[in-house]
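Have a think about this chain, tokens included, and walk me through the fold.
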Amino acid sequence: MSFFITFVKTLIQLLMHKYQLEKSFLVALFVSFCFTSCYTTKKSVYFTDLVDSASKRNINTAVFKEPLIQTDDILSITVQTTDPTVTATLNQANANTASGSSGQTAVTGYLVNKNGEVQIPIIGNVKVAGLTTLQASELITNKSLHDFKFPSVQVRFANYKVNVLGEVNRPGSYILPNEKVSVIDAISLAGDLTIYGKRENVLVIREHDGHKEYARLNLGSSEIFKSPYYYLTQNDLIYVEASKAKISTANDADTFRNISIGIAIITLISILIRTK
């Protein structure tokens, strides 16, 4: 932006010299350009309060709470038995497409119905809502003992998802590879913040007990590790606000247009004065 201001000043000087325009008029016109939005943003870094030292230091972190299974979740349930044919039958549902009622992207696995249950071939309906994946695995294993010898059960979320929006390089919805995922992990999946992202004001929106709650996190401070929002839960939304520099950049087209109009006005006035 300083380039354009310098350009305008030079143009005004030329007009004053060549066409003897009034200085007060040109100064007033120049001042109008000086009020054009022109913001700059200092380059930001993460965790600026950490001491720059080679010595080892500990950082207190938030306690991770295992997520609980909810209705409309989609689970990957793998049951292994000593009979390959039975194993193939039990795991066939993992190859079928299921989708939640919220319009989520279709994924494969067992859908937790409105009663909080999954329907597993041979084993039957198993209520898993309100349990962790480990607890669900143990419950299904116990039920399997009535029909199979030495069953082995693994339960995982198939649609454990967060949304990252705003000033990141790859905004979108991300299905997470595991349950213990932090806000830093999610931002990394989204390609990190752009140069215009406000690192000191990252918004996390979460649904809890049927209502929305939110918190703002500062990526520039190590205090983020202590926040109960540091570890994400199912369907969390992360929003990175744009800085003033981005807003200014978005208005560059208007700025260029205003400069062009200003130059045209100066040129027109100079021609009119010269022809008098």
Remarks:
- The first helix runs from residue 2 to 19.
- Helices lie at 2-19, 23-34, 84-90, 133-144, 183-189, 244-250, 252-275.
